[in-house]
Amino acid sequence: MNDTSPTLLFGYMVNSSDRIRPGVLGPFLMQAARLHQEMGVPCTFFIRGELITPYLADFQRLRDTCGELADLQQCTWSGVPLKTVCQENHAGTRVFEAPPPEVALDEVARTSDEMERLLGVRPIGLAGPLGYYRGLSDRPDLLYRLSAIGIRLLRTYTRNARDWSPVPFEVQPFTYEAQGYADMLEIPGQGETAIEECEEALRRNPQRYLRHVKRDLDYVAAKGLVWSAVQHDWCTILDDPEMHITRAVLVYARERGFRFLTHRAFFEERIRS
């Protein structure tokens, strides 16, 4: 691998239901499968466990259409945070309190079991709901329990020191070796679009969103960095049902010489090699 080659780990947070956002998830999964199959671009889906059974046929269709292009990972059962978040931004301070660790850990185990049973894939990857400053660097207790469940790949570092956005692109993937887990890899979610509220604000003007992401791709390409660019399902498709903006992002990344990997493939490359 050329160490200066920019790498795009593209994906989606799959957390919409008809109860919260009617008519989003099924069409999103169908359109995403079609887009990535047509372009031959791999991607990662971080799935909320409670959605698997109600949308099982849609997830199976995604898996069968995309094959190895689709990397199926998880983001807990119901979206409970692993850590308390104290968010400071223009609107003031807001605290999102995490439940006792056992609650989130039980959700992770339950989701892994359901994905293995119903989709034939046992996830090694976990996206932490809400996201946290420094990921789980300060929580070796959680790393211990997650490791026992089989989680090796984490996408939990998606907030800065104010528990807000952006995380600098210079925050690159790292292992939790200092905490005793050299085989666990954190893949941070950098940039403003890592937080759902920020992505939603940018997408109110699709062309502005596209210009913003292109600037980020230019920066990452110039530095030869890795970017975990994960969109939220409903933001992706709500005002762009055919995912033209997403296609434009991927086309531009290809033109800029990015290599595309799933999060699992990047983990295998970084940890197993």
> In the residues, how many domains can be counted?
1
CATH-defined fold name: TIM Barrel
CATH superfamily caption: Glycoside hydrolase/deacetylase
CATH class: Alpha Beta
Describe the structure.
This protein has one domain: TIM Barrel, CATH 3.20.20.370. It is globular. The strands form 3 sheets. Strands 1, 2, 3, 10 and 11 form a 5-stranded parallel beta sheet that branches. A 4-stranded mixed beta sheet has the order 6-7-9-8. Helices cover 40% and strands 23% of the residues. Strand 6, helix 4 (140-149) and strand 7 (153-159) form a beta-alpha-beta unit. Helix 1 (25-39) packs parallel to helix 2, helix 3 (101-119) packs parallel to helix 4 (140-149) and helix 6 runs parallel beside helix 8. The chain has 273 residues and is α/β, with parallel strands linked by helices. It has 9 helices and 11 strands. The protein starts with 6 loop residues before the first strand and ends with a helix.
Record the SSE blueprint.
Elements: E1 7-14, H1 25-39, E2 43-47, H2 56-66, E3 70-74, E4 85-89, E5 92-96, H3 101-119, E6 125-133, H4 140-149, E7 153-159, E8 174-176, E9 181-186, H5 196-203, H6 206-223, E10 226-232, H7 233-237, H8 244-255, E11 259-260, H9 263-272
Parallel strand pairs: 1-2, 1-10, 1-11, 2-3, 6-7, 7-9
Antiparallel strand pairs: 4-5, 8-9
Would you summarize the structure shown here?
This protein has helices at 25-39, 56-66, 101-119, 140-149, 196-203, 206-223, 233-237, 244-255, 263-272; strands at 7-14, 43-47, 70-74, 85-89, 92-96, 125-133, 153-159, 174-176, 181-186, 226-232, 259-260. The protein is an alpha/beta fold. It has a single domain, classed as Alpha-Beta Barrel (TIM Barrel).
